[in-house]
Amino acid sequence: IADTAGRLHTKDNLMEELKKVRRVIGKLDADAPHEVLLVLDAGTGQNAINQAKQFNQTVTLTGLALTKLDGT
After folding, report:
1. Who contacts 43 (Cβ-Cβ below 8 Å, separation ≥6)?
2. Which distant-in-sequence residues (6+ apart) come within 8 Å of 35 by Cβ?
3. Measuring CA to CA, which residue among 11, 22, 64 is closest to residue 41?
4. Taking the model in full, what pTM does it have?
5. Cβ-contact 34, 63 below 8 angstroms
6. DSSP assigned state of 13
7. 53, 47 in Cβ contact below 8 A?
């Protein structure tokens, strides 16, 4: 498991850093990464769609986890 720091999808330098993490992991294991999950706060609202699209373009997501579903 490689847990990266939170980042805004609008910060190109941070998104490039994610690409680099993926490349480095791929060099260690040609089949890696096996899963790429995006964790989002359920309270994010409609902006979550834009975030998921941007992250998917950058690192090709395999899943999504929503947190704080019990919030108001």
Report:
1. 68, 71
2. 62, 63
3. 64
4. 0.80
5. no
6. H
7. no
Token digits for 21? 């993490």
Residue 61 contacts residue 40 (beta carbons within 8 Å): no
- Per-domain residue ranges for the chain? 12-67
H/E stretch holding 65 reads: strand 63-67
Alpha-carbon span 68 to 43, nearest angstrom? 7
What confidence tens digit (pLDDT) does each residue in 15-60 have? 888 899 999 999 999 999 999 999 999 998 898 999 999 999 999 9
Tokens 């498991």, residue?
Answer: 1
CA distances from 16 to 22, 43, 47, 69, 71 (A): 10, 26, 21, 30, 32
Say which residue the tokens 């395999």 belong to.
62
Q: Report H helices in the chain.
A: 12-28, 47-59
